[in-house]
Amino acid sequence: MIEIENIGRMIERTIEKSRRLKEGILKAQWKKIAGKLSEKSQVLYIREDILYVVVENSSVLHFMELNKKKYINKVNEILNGNIINNILFRISKINENEIYDDMYIDNNNLSEEEILEDRCSNIDFNEMDIFQKIEHLKKSAEKKEQRLINVGYRKCPKCGTYFKGNEDMCKICRDKKNRG
After folding, report:
1. What is the DSSP letter of 38?
2. Sorting pLDDT into bands at 50, 70 and 90, what band is 94?
3. Pairing mode, if any, of strands 162-164 and 153-155?
4. Alpha-carbon gap, residue 156 to 150, rounded angstroms
5. How far apart are alpha carbons 133 and 161 in whole angstroms?
6. pLDDT digit string (tens) for 107-157?
7. Across the strands, what pairs with 48?
8. SS (H, E, C) 39-70
9. Can you tell me the distance from the alpha carbon of 170 to that of 155, in angstroms, rounded to the nearest whole number?
10. What local confidence, expressed as pLDDT, does residue 132 receive?
């Protein structure tokens, strides 16, 4: 007998499996998570159960460090699970264009037409429901992955990160493997 599954549960399972989708959701929801400090901070990526965030200065770092538990709870609430157990902050300059450019590791390998196509899509996440947001993020991730593969990046079989080189896995996974 075929089991019928709730669409909401299917989406939750997809989110559980996709680190990139989780990162995309957190980037899209960062203002809701960090409030006014979202202008002074930015989600970088998720590795294992740690969320990496860049902050503008030491004052912001200090304040966010003091409120880390609150941010972890909000992140886990948005991701519907105990996904993040820690947040690590680092200080760096926040650039508005960096939020967009983060979609592409190597923009120099994209044609002007491809960059303009994505930038001119006039997407307003505030007008989308959660299903539309997930679909948009999924399509963006698929395009990004294909572009990276086309310019010589490889996908690490251990963690799923894309890297350049001829090695079997990314540097982080190789280092972990060598440490034993």
Report:
1. G
2. confident
3. antiparallel
4. 16
5. 22
6. 445 566 665 555 545 566 667 777 777 787 778 778 778 887 887 888 888
7. none
8. HHEEEEEEECCEEEEEECCHHHHHHHHHCHHH
9. 8
10. 79
